[in-house]
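REQUEST ID: PR-0412
SUBMITTED BY: lab tech R.K.
PRIORITY: routine
TASK: structure prediction, single protein chain
INPUT:
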Amino acid sequence: MNPHVICRTVLCLTLLCVVMFIGSGCAARSELMIPASFEMTNTHAKSVLIAESVGGKETNPLWTSQISNKAYTEALAKSLEKSQVFKTVIRTGQADYTLDVTLLAYSQPWVGLDLDITMKTRWELTDNATHKPAWSETFETTYKAKVSEAFVAAERLQKANEGAARTNIAEGIKRLSALKL
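STATUS: complete
OUTPUT:
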């Protein structure tokens, strides 16, 4: 075999491996989407049922990190429990309210040292006794993952996604706590 062909083949395979390593993504982890603390005005002596979030995307291991519906819903439920904004948080069964969160959009830059992710969600709280909306709001939050958090771009993007969800959940809980229920 021609040494130039072998050299080019090895070089191409090496570059492919490097691109896959740098560009491949791991899914955003729900436990890292839970805020450490919450800014709250009120707590509610009511129960809330968490509906499965929609609008997220599953991560393809050969592509970029994403936020799945399951991971966001899990982080949301644990965050609501941790914040104690509602007396009881359930995932199945009957409750005073049902909370639906839809991930409408989140931006992901392709490249950059610091990665800014903006997440837009719609939060809807339904009164289960009347089947009428008790509150509905659409808002955006932004999180910046700095190059100092992770040198590898794929890991930084994963951290940016987790931070974006964490920031969004904290803001949603803050807004829920401001309600008079």
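NOTES: The chain has a mean pLDDT of 81.
REVIEWED BY: pending
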